Structure formats: C-alpha cells, structure tokens
Amino acid sequence: AVGGLSMGGFPDTQTYGIPQFLYYVLSHEIGVTNPDDMWGRPDGPLWPANNPTTLMQSLKNQGISLYMSAGTGLNGAYDAPLGFGGLSAEFVGAILEVVANYSSQSFNISAVNRGLPVTLDLLNPGIHSWPYWNIQMKQSWPQIAAAIGA
Q1: How do residues 52-80 score in pLDDT, each as one tens digit?
Q2: What's the CA dihedral at 107, 112, 116, 119 to 10 degrees?
C-alpha cells in the first residue's frame, strides 16, 4: 500500500469556486510571480487533469491509505482570537482552512461513493498553520507508517 496525506489541503481542486480561489490566493496572498505555472488558468484543461478527485480510481487501484485533515477555521489553541463568534484574528489562515475543509469534505463524498476508504479528521478548530499540521502529522503517523512499511 501507499500512504497519502492531506493536512489543510485542497484535494478536490474542481469543487465549485476552488480553482478561482486557489488562483487568487497564489497570485495575491502568497505572491507567486506567475500562478499559471502551476496548472495554467483555472478554466484550462490541466486543472481537472490534476484533480485528486478525478484521479480517485487510480488511487483506489493502488490501494492507497488516505488520511485527510482540515481545521474548521475557527479560533484554535494556537490562534489569536478576534474576540467574538469564535473567530480567529488570522483572517487569511482562517479562510484558507475553511475552504480546505470544504474541499476535503467534497473529496470524501466522492471517495465514499467510489468505495475508497479515507480516515477523516475535519472537526477540530484551527486555521491554516504549522502548529495544527504538526499535531495532525503525529496523529496520522501510525496509519502512514503502516502504509509505507516503516
């Protein structure tokens, strides 16, 4: 088996609005010089061709062991609170994680419908940042280690 891991990722890059959102984040929030270098324009053919959801049958055929996590985007233990509604003051990280959670849910629905097992952890508070990925790496390690024979 092969191990697959998504922590705050966007495993369904074709979910409604995701291509445009990722393109915007690449070009305006992260400061990538040319976001077309990834897969071209969001309406181009390379976006669906590289979408993990589109490639799901291949993942299933490989017997891949998938572990996916994403936070809720709400204020977590490592975030600066905004002061109301459980929101984080880290707007970009919060929005990124909300969208990652949405994309992960979409991927999981497709996986369930196609019989591809996924270990899913999408209910924890927290934004798109390293402290949460560190926690998820520790939680996912037994499954990933078993999958890669470590």
Answers
A1: 998 888 888 888 889 999 999 999 999 98
A2: 70
